[in-house]
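New here. Your pick:
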Amino acid sequence: MKIEHIALYVKDLEAAREFFIRYFGAVSNEMYHNKKTGFSSYFLSFDDGARLEIMTRPDVRDAAKGEYDTGYAHIAFSVGSKERVDSLTDKLRSDGYKVTSGPRTTGDGYYESCVAALEGNLIEITV
């Protein structure tokens, strides 16, 4: 069994799509739009076959995102090396995204950083 995809509601669908294409090499399908509900989405595919569905609709709400709330915590992307973790973290920081931790080696041995991007949602970058 495998996870088929993860879905994430966002307010700015196009900005989210461009973020994942620019920084993580996502390949996007054509937008799906339901005229009756106003729901729109893209499926983003990544090199290893993982897929992320980003979605929006007119009544999507911006929920509070505390660091230790239940539910979605972060999406982690493996970029292959410490150097690439460092480089992508620096790029995101210089592009105005808030780096919330790292790059660092965690107590459980991961080399990672974490960035608050996409309307405050956390993106983890790891080896």
User: Anything to note?
Assistant: The first strand starts at residue 6 and ends at 9. The chain has two domains: 1-58, 73-127. The chain has two helices and nine strands.
